[in-house]
Design a protein that fits this description.
50% of the residues lie in helices and 24% in strands. By secondary structure, the protein is of the alpha+beta class. The strands form 2 sheets. Strands 1-5-4 form a 3-stranded antiparallel sheet. Strand 2 (84-86) and strand 3 form a beta hairpin. It is globular, with a radius of gyration of 14 Å.
Length: 119
Amino acid sequence: MDQDDLVDNIVRKYREDPRNKVIIDCGDLLDFASEELGISINSGVLLNAVEAYNASTADGPTQEIVDAATALCHQVADRCWGNCLDEEEDEWEEIDISVEWVTNADSEGSEVAAVVRKM
């Protein structure tokens, strides 16, 4: 699934049951960030990047992984809560958001989800 389809799918699900937040699951974050960076990212790599970001120890490549995943959060938020500025160009009002990274690492693997809220 390409990035536009990922965003559209998440926004469609949100609009079916609007809330004060959007939860973006690990699979969508991985697919979007992998396409954005042109490399395959697994959940362990994303988890390590988010943990380094939260600890303020992220280096350049690690920060790029978090930035790529965060780009999905911004695109989804803009389309869920913003106004369309130009349909032809698919341009949306930019919305200020907060992203809470929810992490879970256990013996079966690691998961990362993003909880996106409008500020």
